[in-house]
């Protein structure tokens, strides 16, 4: 466990089963802000999408209740924040203070900007602040992890990646950037303590999507959606609890609104877990919290005509059940289509691990692993996450699990129908939503969807 999470868990609660609703940065943040599933947010469920005014954010409700709100680093982005969409879906930005930073690290002084926010808010005014580090987004300085003393030989490589020096070094470089995030968070906590605010402040520490590696970020496997989550709240929480209840990111908004005594809009699909947080219990606190739902539509523009790769899942108890609605498409981008972001296989962030897989995808010793990330997927997937933590063995075609598949499909589709997922009506509005990427027209001759009208 990272040192900062160890400190937070000692003084708060560590949640073992926290899941983002979608493993793509801006859509993930949209679900946090609105308390709604990605398929309920129209173009807000897409990377380089936008939130319409009708989708209320919990931060706007906090402002209406007298809270000072601010953010530093990466807020709700990348997305369109110009009219007729929400212009301030998150909060006022505090990014003016800069600092000298290592190569590929943002020069935004996150902790300094938090100090700036605290100094400008009203005296005794309640506040909400969002710290969205640009790290550990790629690109990384090659070899920085080893350079600062990380023992590459001790790096644990997930089973869906080749275990070699290239991948180990890439993971070490990723860890280095996470530690940069941690260092600023530590300074923010000290600033709260110095201001006499620490005991009265809810501190939530998590990530918005999985690690930017093949078969992680931009997928619905556990390495894409299963997030760390530690929460502190002064003396209101007994430190050291480890909770097994399943928490979805759509649950954050109603939880925070309930915590401050604000009304929770009926449109919010998520359910408050304030009772779990304040229970001071470990293990499974609420037996009904044994499942979450995740999904994906378009991440990057990496298929002809910008077509999405639609996925819906139910993660319940030890099982992950996945439906790939368009299994004929390439899940991580077409092998001969240059993404505006990352080239071939454009749903995978560019980096040494991805490059190694692409360069060696036809090597007999690498091909089985490369196919997991680069190849097409079956219509249905089922994994026992407890015995198969890297989701390597699909059980969907095993007759012994036919009843398990049927039950999970029924439960998943019932929820999707309840939450009015267009996929349940055979519709795909995501095919035509705008792709708000600056410079996009220079890359592709034909605009996608309704871009001409925006």
From TrEMBL:
Family from the record: Belongs to the sulfatase family.
Domain (Sulfatase N-terminal): residue spans on this chain: 5-261
UniProt cross-references to PANTHER family, sorted A to Z: SULFATASE, SULFATASE ATSG-RELATED
InterPro entries per UniProt: Alkaline_phosphatase_core_sf, GAG_Ulvan_Degrading_Sulfatases, Sulfatase_CS, Sulfatase_N
One Pfam match: Sulfatase
Official protein name in the record: Sulfatase N-terminal domain-containing protein
The organism's taxonomic lineage, starting at the top: Bacteria, Pseudomonadati, Bacteroidota, Flavobacteriia, Flavobacteriales
CDD domains associated with the record: SGSH
Example of a GO MF term: hydrolase activity
Top-rank taxon, per record: Bacteria
Presence of keyword Heme: no
Keywords: Hydrolase
Organism the protein comes from: Flavobacterium faecale
